[in-house]
Design a protein that fits this description.
Elements: H1 2-11, H2 24-28, H3 32-38, E1 47-49, H4 58-61, E2 66-68, H5 79-85, H6 90-101
Parallel strand pairs: 1-2
Helix pairs in contact: 1-6
Length: about 110
């Protein structure tokens, strides 16, 4: 879903970078040069998509970033229904990223 949303943005001329972020601990142990090569400090508009609580993501998305996450507990339904309910769809990730980027941010 994230890849599809990123491809759609790229097709519209937006420069996008998709980063898989499986471990904050391992990432923090890397050199600052490496960290900056993955999360370029010159790119302040970042979107994290976390199928869980967003706590802690502010450190990585920064003050101009946005976190798409689940901030409630206890929902029960098939996975695809929950993803749709919480906005983990191509359409919503695309829409959220586009809103974050705003006009003139290609």
């Amino acid at each position: 879903m994230i890849i599809n949303a990123g491809q759609k943005l790229a097709e519209e001329g937006y420069g996008v970078r998709l980063v898989s972020f499986p471990s904050w601990d391992l990432f923090e142990k890397q050199s600052q040069e490496y960290i900056d090569s993955v999360l370029d400090p010159a790119i302040p508009k970042r979107l994290s998509v976390e199928a869980g609580v967003g706590l802690g993501w502010n450190k990585w998305v920064g003050g101009k970033g946005r976190i798409l996450s689940i901030e409630t507990f206890g929902a029960s339904a098939p996975g695809n229904k929950l993803f749709e309910e919480y906005g983990f769809t191509i359409k919503n990730v695309y829409k959220t990223a586009k809103k974050l980027l705003g006009k003139g941010s290609k």
